[in-house]
# Entry
Amino acid sequence: MAGLALAACAVFFHLCLLLLLSSSSSLRLAAGGRGRTAYHFQPAKNWQNDPNGPMYHHGMYHFFYQYNPRGALWDIGNLSWGHSVSGDLVNWAALDTALDPTAPFDANGCWSGSATILPGGLAAILYTGIDANNEQVQNVAFPKNPSDPLLREWEKPAYNPVIAHPADVPGDKFRDPSTAWLGRDGLWRIAVSGEVDGVASTLVYRSKDFLRWERNAAPLHASHAAGMVECPDLFPVAEHGREGLNTSANGAAERHVLKLSVMDTLQDYYMVGRYDDATDTFSPEERERGDDCRNWRRLDYGHVYASKSFFDARKNRRVLWAWANESDSQADDVARGWSGIQTFPRKLWLDKDGKQLLQWPIEEIETLRRKRIGLRRGTKVEAGALLEIAGIASSQADVEVVFKLPSLEEAERLDPIWLLDPQKLCGEKGASVQGGVGPFGLIVLASGDLHEHTAVFFRVFKHHDKYKLLMCTDLTRSSTRAGVYKPPHGGFVDMDIEEHKRISLRTLIDHSVVESFGGGGRTCITARVYPEHAETGNDSHLYVFNNGTDAVKVSRLEAWELATATVNVVGDDGLVAPASGATRQSEA
Ligand SMILES: *[C@@H]1O[C@H](CO)[C@@H](O)[C@H](O)[C@H]1NC(C)=O
Ligand SMILES: *[C@@H]1O[C@H](CO)[C@@H](O)[C@H](O)[C@H]1NC(C)=O
Ligand SMILES: *[C@@H]1O[C@H](CO)[C@@H](O)[C@H](O)[C@H]1NC(C)=O
Ligand SMILES: *[C@@H]1O[C@H](CO)[C@@H](O)[C@H](O)[C@H]1NC(C)=O
Ligand SMILES: *[C@@H]1O[C@H](CO)[C@@H](O)[C@H](O)[C@H]1NC(C)=O
# Structure
């Protein structure tokens, strides 16, 4: 990192400031106001929703997001693109907004879109404009000064929109252009969501020059009963290994993933399949799940929406961002002065089964790890036990645990109706409902008297002669505050628990968010919580628990206190303040 910083300093002054800023994390436990997170992406204030246009460009990560510069609530007619830059995807400096609703083709809002790096290195943004007639159109924008390493200013050419709203799509149902990819014929393609004759469709547009776009007659995918879908993301994954692929890669040893966000359920779903660049269509691997994407795999079984991935050429990986909204009231948003966070960036790759994605926090999170504690290998967690993991401040922490299951004998029988609704099952069988094998897992963000706590746990069921592993986050006692939305969160973990007899859990705790990764990232659950004890200055506690009748063992447990990252602290329009840059420079 130091070498990189020095090299960069020699080239670009601002980049240098930024990299120095990146190495300045320190432990500040009070993250600044009610529920404010310490290492998740948030603007300094105001409303944010969808992640937009993430990219790695000339040694710098850029992140854009749907942003209301005027307040903490969504403002349908006035959305801008917030913009931040980072050297490491952990520490971020806020820049001025990149796109604002100022032109006839986006007068009522600059909505979601994506970035593409063109041959030669020019970055391009495609985004949805809500035009002066309140119709959704697709626009392009380019850096005003392509040699500015921070790409601070963006220009929207007057020839926009590049894609007018089509006659067979309602004016308010045509949006969210994806990152572009190149077909073997040398033409660019993008995916755009549009409702055609009442059918949620993912449309493909092709272009030779990034300016004139022509729609393919067949959609990439059509989901007949799903209602409007949005934020399409089509990307290749390697059949083997964890390396990511650029969005244009399309070889024999690759699969494609199509991710869609469904308005009806406000959830993200994905399917692994094959993409054919001759017909620009997508064939799902798991045909039995049908064309209604609400039956596809869930990206996260908690509170995330409108996710978007990008190819990180610096580390050859695919990285996913997703929006996690607040679960309390609009009045709370206004009182706090902000609303919405992004999940911690996740690396994505294809599981060996060829059907599911594995998701894992990017390794840069380890730069925030400070004090570490562990549990002796093989520690037995008896029926009814509650073991405190003491010694770290656990309201911002990273916990990795592996449970070993000596026996599955006591697994509860599963009524087949539950197979369709794991959320409801988690609701009926929360952490306090005793079982056979499980519930066991972690208790996080617990007050000293356990009055408030959030449980992340597993429970094994027997279904015919097979076992099903359920993972849940139980929010029912997460906060004593009234008016907080606390739905059950949960999904099955698609792995053979009988063969493995062990299950891993990684949980990122950050004041008002608990992001959990079960079974090596097969099942993910992001939960928003608002513990009152933390607001009054009381410490949060961390435990391992078992409320099953069978004992389980902890074959590994490590927990780290995490430092507070530098996330947009300078202000919304402050860039990297020269003063702070200068101080840091003299320290260096
Ligand atoms: C956008 O914000 C401006 C400034 O606050 C306001 O005057 C205008 O009415 C807003 N437009 C819409 C459509 O809400
Ligand atoms: C994308 O990846 C493919 C396959 O690895 C490679 O052939 C192609 O050159 C890459 N394209 C770019 C723009 O990096
Ligand atoms: C945001 O949170 C509310 C609960 O406050 C929930 O009902 C809603 O579905 C969420 N929206 C999205 C887009 O996740
Ligand atoms: C375990 O079950 C008992 C009895 O239902 C309950 O009182 C206790 O709170 C449960 N533990 C957890 C962590 O939910
Ligand atoms: C800590 O929690 C206890 C109850 O568990 C409460 O009585 C006390 O006021 C809290 N302390 C602070 C500093 O808020």
About this structure: The first strand starts at residue 46 and ends at 57.
